[in-house]
Amino acid sequence: MLSNKLLKNQKIKKMKTLKVIGIILVAGIVFSACETAQTPEKVAEDFLNYLEVSDYDNAKTLGTANTHEILENLKAFEQMEGFGDFEEAEPRVISNVECDVADDFARCTYLADDEQGELDLVKEDDLWLVDMQKETPMDDITFESDDDYDWEEDSWEEAEEEVEEEVEEVIEE
Length: 173
Prior knowledge:
There is one protein chain. By secondary structure, this protein is an alpha+beta fold. It is built from five helices and four strands. The protein has helices at 2-36, 40-52, 56-60, 65-79, 153-172; strands spanning 94-102, 105-112, 115-124, 127-130. The protein has a four-stranded antiparallel beta sheet, covered by helices on one side. The longest helix is centred in the first third of the chain and has 35 residues, at 2-36. The model is unreliable at 30-35 (pLDDT under 50).
């Protein structure tokens, strides 16, 4: 009888030990999942940092299909003849990324050095993705040379058409 009680106590101890180990494992998985969860702020910051160094391939992993197309065009534009003649600017520091979230949409504001910008994100398959629109792909991204150039609407439309034609030629090759 004593040995039965002893065996029963040992079984109970093993069960308790296994239960505690199971709880610890589940808690560890839950906490690690929370740490790696994507937030719109993290996605926006990573995306903008990739853009600052022209890492379009990694930026595409954080974007929608619309964003992929725009990034491919930017990449092709950079590969065009003569583009590399410009002096490379230091990447701007991205900071103060804050997002207002409404359901599956987030509008994020940020500072790139001291310039404020805005970026839209959408949630697809539980992932936050940057959603750049073709009509206004980079309205909030400014270039230092913009301040020095007198943009006339007619010349801008002509330049835009020329760039689109050249990008299409590069893509076709």
